[in-house]
Predict the 3D structure of the following.
Amino acid sequence: MAFDPNFADAHYDEAISELEKTLDEGRSRLDPETVRVIEANLVAIDQAIDQCRKALRNDPSNVYLNNHFVESRNRKLALLRRATALTMETGS
């Protein structure tokens, strides 16, 4: 069964929202260059996610696209988790 790229994943969306909020709150504790790198990587990941969604609309059963979509979302979660952990470490 193919993944539906239009179907919202409430757990994922909630986790992303919470992590982004935590990152925003701790942003001032990070070096500005670190923030720039994190933001640039998030933009690249978001672009990959958007491109996968578009491609999956045309080819929803494509295994590569489905895997790439899931991996991109996981990459975003991992980056946000590392970044928010960094804000907590530097805030101590």
